[in-house]
């Protein structure tokens, strides 16, 4: 494995790295902005939402979907850069978190159901399906803290990081986008997984904030590779010209509160790996 390198610095709570059509996108939750990060470290703001959490996904039609958590809705970024409401999720709950769109255009967005940063007591979280026509319904529940999500390249399985349970959970995806009952995909010991991605061998990379690393695991929990960090790992994704660059969003975690990360400590990191990415995101 090659040396970990830094692409961008001076950001806040950086999350939701996504590779799309030759560009890397990340969300700076502190600034409430979605940014494109160039290979030379240049940062271009492509959307300002003022939301926290602030996660994104790309639909098959090439448009970005943005989770506007405070207002319980999904936004769609149009080709001219304007934002339109794609779906209103207010009737289903609050505190929306991560999102993934599969190859058929089905959107999965989860909610933790409580204000973690304000120190509220946890309640079970859910996964919601938003179909291409904008209809939304809950398709899974009982997760302690649903976080990063990824879909396998054959559109058959949704993997969800359940942070408080320290595990990855697998769901079979039905023809209509519905989910089976969740099953253990990997138990992670002491690691609380955050953002995740899938590679071409069916393994999952996950980032962990308290563990300050990214780890690659196969189904069942065997650890195949690790990338050590000097700060919390919030999310990771595979991309680059050949799909073999692991991009990591990292920052110095201070804990729940109005300022959860050390100001300016957010970084976008990159390291070359052997197995390319597959599936979504």
TrEMBL record:
SMP-30/Gluconolactonase/LRE-like region domain sequence ranges: 15-251
Pfam families: SGL
Source taxon at top rank: Bacteria
InterPro entries: 6-blade_b-propeller_TolB-like, SGL, SMP-30, SMP-30/CGR1_Lactonase
PANTHER family (alphabetical): BLR2277 PROTEIN, LIPOPROTEIN-RELATED
Protein name, UniProt field: SMP-30/gluconolactonase/LRE family protein
Originating species: Kitasatospora aburaviensis
Source species taxonomy: Bacteria, Bacillati, Actinomycetota, Actinomycetes, Kitasatosporales
């Amino acid at each position: 494995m090659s040396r970990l390198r830094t692409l961008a610095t001076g950001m806040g709570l950086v999350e939701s790295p996504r590779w799309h059509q030759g560009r890397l996108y990340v969300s700076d939750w502190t600034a409430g902005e979605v940014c494109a990060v160039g290979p030379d470290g240049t940062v271009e703001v492509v959307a300002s939402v003022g939301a926290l959490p602030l996660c994104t996904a790309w639909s098959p039609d090439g448009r970005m979907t943005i989770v506007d958590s405070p207002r319980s809705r999904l936004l769609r970024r149009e080709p001219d850069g304007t934002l339109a409401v794609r779906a209103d999720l207010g009737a289903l709950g609050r505190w929306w978190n991560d999102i993934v769109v599969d190859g058929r255009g089905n959107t999965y967005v989860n909610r933790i159901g409580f204000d973690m940063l304000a120190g509220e007591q946890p309640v079970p979280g859910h996964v919601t399906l938003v179909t291409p026509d904008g209809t939304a319904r809950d398709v899974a529940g009982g997760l302690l803290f649903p976080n990063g999500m990824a879909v396998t390249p054959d559109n058959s399985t949704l993997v969800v990081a359940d942070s408080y349970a320290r595990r990855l959970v697998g769901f079979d995806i039905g023809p209509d986008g519905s989910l089976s009952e969740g099953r253990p995909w990997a138990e992670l010991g002491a690691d609380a997984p955050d953002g995740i991605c899938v590679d071409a061998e069916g393994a999952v990379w996950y980032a962990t904030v308290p563990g300050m690393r990214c780890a690659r695991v196969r189904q069942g929990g065997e650890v195949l590779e690790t990338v050590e960090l000097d700060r919390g790992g919030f999310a990771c994704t595979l991309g680059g010209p050949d799909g073999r660059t692991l991009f990591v969003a990292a920052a110095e975690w201070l804990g729940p509160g109005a300022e959860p990360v050390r100001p300016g400590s957010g970084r976008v990191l990159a390291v070359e790996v052997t197995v390319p990415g597959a599936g979504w995101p």
